Amino acid sequence: MKLNREDFMTAISAIVGERTDDEAISFVENMTDTYDAFGDSEKDKTIADLQKSLEETEQTWRKKYRDRFYSGTDEEGNPSNQPLEEDKDDMIEAEEITIDDLFNEERED
Predict the structure, then answer these.
(1) Cα–Cα distance list, 85 to 79, 82, 88, 90 (Å)
(2) Cα distance between residue 81 and residue 28, in whole Å
(3) Whole-angstrom Cα distance, residue 49 to residue 56?
(4) I need a labelling partner for 83 at 20 to 30 A (CA). Which of 14, 16, 34, 63 fits?
């Protein structure tokens, strides 16, 4: 069974008792340092795992973005400037206007 820090220190205290000699104090210091080192190594491992996962995720998204950018299509292979086939039915056709149409004045009398 893995003990939390408080239970671990209680177990050490039960072994050492009321002793205050150098050997007992050294033993308590060594046990405390060892316990803390185990906790730190687990934290370090967790942090390393999370950093690795973050880097992998970032690389994946960067690759997806780059591939999409250079290919000009999204993940479904749809050109980014073209509507999807099912959306075409709902679209309204725009009137074609030329530059001449913009500069011709129509006067209504």
Answers:
(1) 11, 9, 5, 10
(2) 70
(3) 11
(4) 63
